Amino acid sequence: MVSNPDALRAALMRTVASFRVGMPARGNDALVSFVTMLQARLEGTGSDAVAHPFLAHLGEIIAAQERGDYLRIADLLEFELLPLL
Amino acid sequence: MWERNREVLAERFTDVLAALEAAPRLEGVRVVDDTPVPTLSVDGIQLTSAYDRAGEAREQAGLVPEGAQRVYVYGLGLGDLARRLLSRPRLGELVVVLLNRSLAREVLERFDHADWMRDPRVRILLGESLSELLHPFAALPGELSLASLECARLRDLVVLDLAAPHAEERMAEREALFARAIEANRSHLEVDGDVAELFSTKNGSTVLLAGAGPSLEDSFDRLRERTEPLVCVDGALRALLAVGVVPDVVVSIDAHEVGVPRMFEGDLAPMGGATLVYFPVVPAEVIARWPGRRLAAYGEHARWSDLASVHPRGRLWTSGSVTHAASDLAVRMGASSIVLFGCDFGFTRGKTHVVGNPYSAPAETSMVPGVWVEDVRGERLPTLPNLCGYLRDFERYVRMHPQVSFFNASREGAAIEGTRPANEVALGQ
Fold first, then answer.
1. If interface means Cβ-Cβ distance under 8 Å, which residues of chain A face chain B?
2. Which residue has the higher pLDDT, B362 or B297?
3. What does the longest C-alpha to C-alpha distance in chain A come to?
4. In chain A, what are the domain boundaries?
5. Do residues B264 and B234 touch, judged by C-beta distance below 8 A?
6. Of B159, B78, B72, B61, whose CA–CA distance to B116 is shortest?
7. Is this model's pTM higher than 0.90 or not?
């Protein structure tokens, strides 16, 4: 199964919007949906213009989650990854 | 920068200025200026976007109805949200609530806020002066994470309010599970009694209530030697039985098909003289194994209405925690005093639950960064967002029942507003 870009974009924007207004639980759920779809893309195509930049930022995203820095995560997703979709 | 901001504060908000000037300095403060727009980072947490602060403020302002005449903003930020809201022609008053005095001082020393603070529609309040959440509002997520100890309660109310729609969505996803569980329990409902049989049976008494928090371990002797009735939550049952404490009533309200049965594993023979109070979503196998009296109850949610019309039962208040239902049972029983044991609402002694609970584990397996409440010693107690919510809802419940004295026997759990420390003198009253 290869996830379509619209669904990926929607999940990403839901994540970003949730983090920006102070709804981290909703944001984290949406992020899980996004990652699941991204995984499907990788399995389907073997390489991906979005998956690899996401993986490159994954360490920073996890670190930001661990310290509760949700606006940093929102910035990474919105301004580093979303333009690639 | 501070002098510009200070001038406005001195002119319009002298109390706030005094508080900021007396506030201790923060460490770990860094201006982030190698990004498209500058922001401030405190302890690794950004106060705003470092790419598009104006766009972010637009998103945050979107939570507030366009025509709102008075709006509350929880957090100071870098002024973008305040400016965005003040641009609304119909806005009559903007109340900015500071969640951390020291943080506000650091922000005002580095970023200019004089323009919007001069607006006659603006009021600035210290968060510790508010006891309830005021609406409509928008909030700054970074400052929710950085709220001070004094503002922790208000912060929790903001966070819970923002999380409520998502929590409702998640609850709706569980309706199919609830429906299955209720169907499986119809045969029990045909024959089991009504929780209302316990109402007003202990008028004027002291009732003891055992939660499943780790601090319950300090009270095993007290509970074993008790003369008062003991109501416990299901999560405390195995821990109490293991040390020879036999509760009088056990309350169970959850539908978890694996978790709940585990809390009733082992030899339940000692409970032959005890009562199980259950919501009919509790797994049927748990109800079937109970050796003593069984009384069904419903919550106050509308989901119970259809079932209640066929099998009427008494209602117990809960906003998701079995501790709530157990407390409301004690109140409905007529207790004039309720003593809370192990109602920690957090990870005391670095653990999740009392020893003997099947899910007792080191706290680090469950901790969420930056989530804490103030404990009875005035220190930060790591907890979970849902436990935070249960705590604040319970505090509201305690306020609504001034005729009952609530005592907290935990020496390290969350500070529960409206309760008094338990001691031998208090227990005798």
1. 17, 19-26, 29, 65-72, 74-75, 78-79
2. B297
3. 35
4. 5-84
5. yes
6. B78
7. no
